[in-house]
Amino acid sequence: MLLSSVGVFLMTALAGIVSGQQQTTTSSNGTSLNPVATQYGSTFKNAGGKVLTSFVNAYVIFYGDWSSANSTADQNTFLGFVDGISSTNWFSILKEYTDGNGNAVSGPLNLAAAVHDTGSAGLNLTDHNAHKTIILNAVKSGYLSENNQLDSNGVYILLLGPDVHDSEFCSTNCGYNSYSDQFQYLFIGYPGACPNFCTPPMNKDQSPNNSPSIDSVITLFSHEIQDVLTDPRMDAWSVRNGDQVVEVGDFCSGTGTSTEQWFGNLQKASNGGSYNLEFNDAKYLVQTVYSKEQNKCLLSK
Ligand SMILES: *[C@@H]1O[C@H](CO)[C@@H](O)[C@H](O)[C@H]1NC(C)=O
Ligand SMILES: *[C@@H]1O[C@H](CO)[C@@H](O)[C@H](O)[C@H]1NC(C)=O
Ligand SMILES: *[C@@H]1O[C@H](CO)[C@@H](O)[C@H](O)[C@H]1NC(C)=O
């Protein structure tokens, strides 16, 4: 999605995925690209900012109620994904994205810490400042690092539980990435609250890890992490067009993106859930990554 209230925040929703109903542009050689890639693919470049190169710590904040047995399984599913994703050939596609000195996104993404916060900023979040406050509360808590310091080269990941209401989640976004003076972060709500908006249709009833909500979080994360790593301060791999901010993740998702473009080659798990990536004996549904070298959305490189 390409909407933005103040010209900096990128929203993500999965609502556009309705197989067969998209308008796509098909070039003469059969490569189908979405409107973003069609418009910006050939000129896409780093606007001068940094990317997150080499070792990147990931800090996960489970906010709200994550206490049920299924929630515990969900947390393990998500943490397993974060822990392993940077070793995959999917992640390797991001290595095309460099800063002005030629330093590329390379990983590893290191799962540094995870914390529970049952509601330090309340259960009705009304703006992005509330999200930043939650992150700062987690940093100060001592559970994310020994020195209680912000990690300016890390990524903070804020996930909401089912009991948390957010003013934008489920209405204008399912997740987004943004930054503050000293850190960058990504936010993802609880997709089970609005499956028609935030769950890929092929995983609404069954999903590879028996949890449509956490599997949707993983799909959303696979978009936002692309943006955070290649455009942590929204001055690197992004294009501004009026109020719109386009980042790497938007080249293979959103309005006008075919299911094939968005997810590549889908496979069915034995439980009926759809996936397209497998590592460490687990299956996941991720978004494709835009290869600017090949002008294609790829699942591996
Ligand atoms: C296919 O066409 C697109 C759009 O014209 C172009 O960018 C891309 O390089 C072409 N791919 C191949 C493999 O020729
Ligand atoms: C918990 O997970 C099990 C299997 O993984 C599922 O059958 C059950 O419906 C889930 N319960 C809830 C409340 O989501
Ligand atoms: C959340 O807070 C807003 C603003 O104070 C209020 O209008 C809204 O009714 C609240 N929503 C819930 C679910 O409590």
Automatic annotation (TrEMBL):
InterPro entries: EXORDIUM-like (IPR006766). It is found in: Secreted. This is Phosphate-induced protein 1. Pfam families: Phi_1. Transmembrane segments: none annotated. Residues 1-20 form the signal peptide. Belongs to the EXORDIUM family. The keyword Secreted applies. Keywords: Secreted, Signal. One of its GO terms (cellular component) is extracellular region. It comes from Absidia glauca.
